[in-house]
Prior knowledge:
Blueprint: H1 3-8, H2 22-26, E1 36-41, H3 45-53, E2 61-67, H4 71-80, E3 87-89, H5 92-96, E4 103-106, H6 113-122, E5 126-130, H7 137-148, E6 155-158, H8 165-175, E7 182-189, H9 205-208, H10 219-236, E8 242-248, E9 261-268, E10 273-280, E11 288-294, E12 297-301, E13 306-310, H11 312-319, E14 339-340, H12 349-363, H13 371-390, E15 393-395
Parallel strand pairs: 1-2, 1-4, 2-3, 4-5, 5-6, 7-10
Antiparallel strand pairs: 7-11, 8-9, 8-15, 9-10, 11-12, 12-13, 13-14
Amino acid sequence: MDRRNFIKNSSLGTSALLFSGAMWNSFATIGNDQVYRIGIIGFGDRGSGLFNVLRDFHNKFEVTAICDPLDFRQDHARKAADTNKVKLYRDHRKLLENKEIDAVIIATPLNTHYEIAKNSIEAGKHVLLEKAMAFTTDQALNLARIAENHPRQTLQIGHQYRYSPLYYKVRKMIQDGYLGKVTQIDARWDRNWNWRRPVPDPKLERKINWRMYKDYSGGLPAELLSHQMDFIHWAFDCLPTTIYGTGGIDRYKDGRETYDNVQVNIRYEKEDMIGNFGATCSNQHDGYSFRIKGSKGMVSLLVDDGLFYPEPETRKELEEVDGVSGATKLTWSDDKNGIRLVDSPLKDGSYYAFQDFYRAISENTLPDSNVYTGGSTAICVALANKSIYGGGICKWQPEYSLGSVAPERSQRAREPEKTSNIEH
């Protein structure tokens, strides 16, 4: 670590360190003045939640259609939206025939992602597709090819948590060497809850609690751990080498098929790095926990907060007064000598994801969470589940690489070509 450069790039005397405010400000300025008309496909918890987030983007996006086949969600949509302005559909294909719709949000069960995304792209719509991008490796590979063949349509994948400015900051820390040589990632997302939604009619059990059934869902790896897996691929510009998982239905013997307790070990051979990703439905103490451990320090992340813990020698360097810059000593948090990485409340990650979605559509460039990064994560999740349920170690195959992990290494042939105004 270059102590002088660290000092110059730090906001000394405050608890938010390491970078200037330029990156934070870049999130406030996006795109042009065009308003894009949005259709939401799937109006469950996630779809209706994104509908509410879009209220903050009334001058960028306008929801003009909502699609869901279930009666009670149709009723929910009628109460949430002005049906004089928002048309309701039960079949996504009918919504896609609406030429006035510019883009769609797909917030449906995982097993439907591929078909609906394929239909949407081929209908000329921009797409924000919830994670995971696809259910199987073949679907991920095929969807990447479809996106390549439709370069004017934006395809963003909904790994919204890493869209927070905090996660851009940590990615920059990793790239600039503040953590030193990273060898271990410990990621968890725990809860003490059965994950079950209320069902108004027993016939709707699998449609509402689809996360619990193998034909519809990738379970905990897809719904929770994919976010942290995705960040590692993106931040380190890396891919797995081997994936090993285990798990079981260890608490809730209620007819579910997906496991309520899982652990996945991933080896990143080229990076000399191991990732440990786990989730349980039986204890909430750790909740969301994400630790990235390097030879110079560790970052410990929550969804909207983070601390940097320097190793002893690194801390000694950072505490010295720089006579050239006139900087004073660093200010430490009260959490065992960690440096807090944010000093102001952050918005939900979906807010920042919508900013990038608007930018990508307006500038005709790849979103930061795109078919390459999202596809790699979807394949990683599929292989993790193959190992969890089938046993054995899964190896990453060359054809899984989708030609790229980082979009800057494989720009799609788009016109006009513009540079992102999101700082990396």
